Amino acid sequence: MKTHATTASLTLLTLSFIGVYPARAQVDKPAPKIEHRKNEFTVQGSALKAVWPAEVAKKPALRDFVRKIEGWSNSAIIYTVDGPLFEIQSETLAAMFPKWTFHIVPYREERHPDTKELVSIAGGLYFVIATNERGERVEFFGYNNHDDFGAFLASNKIRLRNNDDAKKIWTAYCHTIRHDSPTIESKKADATTWKLGWRMVMDNREYYYEVQTLEDGTIKSGSLRNVPAKKK
Questions:
Q1: 113 vs 109: CA distance, rounded Å
Q2: Res. 32 pLDDT band, cuts 50 70 90
Q3: Helices 60-70 and 10-18 meet at what angle, rounded to 10?
Q4: How far from chain centre, in Å, is Cα 126?
Q5: At what angle do helices 163-177 and 147-155 cross, to 10 degrees?
Q6: Do 136 and 61 meet the contact criterion of CB atoms below 8 Å apart?
Q7: d(CA 74, CA 59)
């Protein structure tokens, strides 16, 4: 997937949004599509606020990421932001990362009308983007092992020392990545390893978000695991 930035102007960017978003007048009374999209990203304990083109234009880090996605388009596939964007409203995220704001950026792939190639089109694509007032941006892809979230925890020097910390961090993971349920329990594997959101799944496998810490509990890394359960 190409990730070079496009040179499209802000005006063209805004116009491309208008083609995707419902009219601005519908903000107070969302169109059915908006409610449907919210349902796709619903996670217990958090809320979503639709973000419109005029608001995106005022947020350079977010605006530039939208340009980046549209810049992936090539002769075979067209990439388009599938608005609206959503701001994630979460007390857990606000307390853990007070300097950061989180947005969902859905996008879609479309076969280029002029291509003669056979192409595979993926669905349900999205990123979650964290931005701050300094213009910094952190990107979380919707589908991978989410090492990026572990790195974000580490860079913010978040500590995991007990079950209360585990619950808050697991909730922050669910609210950021927009997967799973904050009510799933976590367990400590050893002195520096935690299994957040641990459960058994099909074929006798363990599924959890593994977090590694230093001896004082400061998080070093995190990664999603789906591994065969150990025989007793």
A1: 12
A2: low
A3: 80
A4: 7
A5: 120
A6: yes
A7: 26
Closest by CA position to 83, among listed 93, 74, 70, 94: 70
What pLDDT, on a 0 to 100 scale, did the predictor assign at position 36? 74
Q: Phi then psi for 90, rounded to 5 degrees?
A: -145, 125
Q: Which residues pair with 108 in a beta bridge?
A: 80
Considering only 24-38, 52-66, 209-223, which range has the smallest mean pLDDT? 24-38
The domain spans of the chain are 10-141, 147-228
Whether 129 contacts 137, CB under 8 Å: yes
DSSP label at residue 146? -
DSSP letter at 141 equals E
Per-residue pLDDT of 151-171, as tens digits, reads 999 999 999 999 999 999 999
CA distance 106 to 81: 6
With beta carbons less than 8 A apart as the criterion, state whether 222 and 210 touch. yes
Query: Which bin fits 178, alpha (ψ -120 to 50), beta or left (φ > 0)?
Result: left
Give pLDDT, residue 232: 67
Helices (H), 117-214: 147-155, 163-177
CB-CB contact of 62 with 139 (8 Å):
no
pTM of the model: 0.83
Which pLDDT score is estimated for 98? 98
